[in-house]
């Protein structure tokens, strides 16, 4: 276990901005190497989500185009290691859907996001032969 200093950023997205692109731009512009989502509330009109084990294809991507509330956004962000984000959304009927953030995420009214960064660490991705995916690798920041 590593102990690290924490820095906090607050970001508010406006209607029609793409949540994923804006997070990616923010992380790269601020050179965040070990960031994570602390909280996010808001709404979307479009969400592109990769489903976990969707049928025969583990990488089934679904596009949802309706007004949805963001009930959860979690994950890690890194300007050098990439991002791994999952989202949960509530439809107008209160049904919840979710999965891996995979593409366009168009903001409806707002997205209020609090981002933390572990200032003494670096998040990267390394291939894990057991999972078959690039997984989180944490190292000290030099």
UniProtKB/TrEMBL annotation:
InterPro entries: PPC_dom. SUPFAM superfamilies: AF0104/ALDC/Ptd012-like. Pfam families: PCC (PF03479). Gene3D superfamilies: Hypothetical protein, similar to alpha- acetolactate decarboxylase, domain 2. Residues 3-139 form the PPC domain. CDD domains: DUF296. This is PPC domain-containing protein.
